[in-house]
Amino acid sequence: MGQTAGKRRIRWIGATIVVLGAVAGGVILALDQDEKSRPAALVVAAADRGAVTVDVATTGTVEPATTRSLAFAVSGTVESVTVRAGNKVTKGQTLARIDDADAADDVSDAEAKLAEARRRLDDATAVVAEATAVATACAVTATRGPQLLAGGEALGGGEALGGEQAAAAAACPTRGHPDTGSDPVLTAEQQVHQATRAVEVARKALDGATITAPIAGTVVAVAGSVGDQVPSGATFISLADTYTMQVRADFPEADAGALTVGQRAEITLARSDDILTGEVAQVDPAGTSDGTLVRYGVVVAFADSPADLLVGQSAQVKVRTGEVADVVRIPSTAVHDVSGGSGTVLVRSGNERIQRTVAVGLRGDLYTEITDGLSEGDQVVRSW
After folding, report:
1. Most buried of the four, 25, 72, 143, 149, by CB within 10 Å?
2. Is the pLDDT of residue 163 over 90?
């Protein structure tokens, strides 16, 4: 009897579990069907008034606005280098020097030749002046007609000449000499000009034995050291104007078409959350292709360059390419099928959603301008 009662009790518990499981499953199924039949809640947004903006963004690199390549004007042995890469320098500061003994000797030789050329010019000028006086006296003698005695006395009752004129007349040739056409003063003047030019070149070469900073900035690179033999004209020091910095960035072709000089920009440097202001200073007229995408180089100038900028530092650049203020706007995700200045929205009216065509203005990153078809306060489905 005890075993029979135990078996019945076990069968009853099992049946109860089965019934309860079936009931629970039915409840879950009913809830699931009810959830599916219930309409999804709509996320709506009200049209309001405000600004609509369009920005394009990319990454870029900080670079100096000006970089100078400095070289010695003469070849020689480096005698001193007073800077190294990373040093900040002032305008006019001496940066490096080569042995200038030969260049100094060349200046001395050129100045000596110039002095000799000037002496020859003075001599030629004196000779020409004397010859001019003789020619003048001879001309006077020829116009007066009578024969003159040595000492200036006239024969035949003619007018006597003064002492200087008489002396010049005595030097008059008795017969003509051929004119060679040479001008000793002109020749001497040409020699002076050539010697003067040689002095200028020599002095410039002597100055070129020293490199001085033409601008204030930062030394980017030094190509040699003391004792090196350097040729003239080869870059020895690279100097960057780090007081006027800019960002060079490449924008995709789709974005570059909207970029123009003067547009406002925001710059965020690597490892910094500070937003710096700037503006577009240059848009390259030709793009470059990597085989997949065409990009255009853009230069963005800082409105106020921070003092701690580093050459080559990376930066995020965002340029505002479009903006309208105080217009009727809705979220851009609410506007579909935009074409030819119009688009489609779903307007909520009570429990209904009504599709409506609206006129679209500027389509921004977050909002789209609605120029007709909606009023401020109208509710539209945010995303559909």
Report:
1. 72
2. no
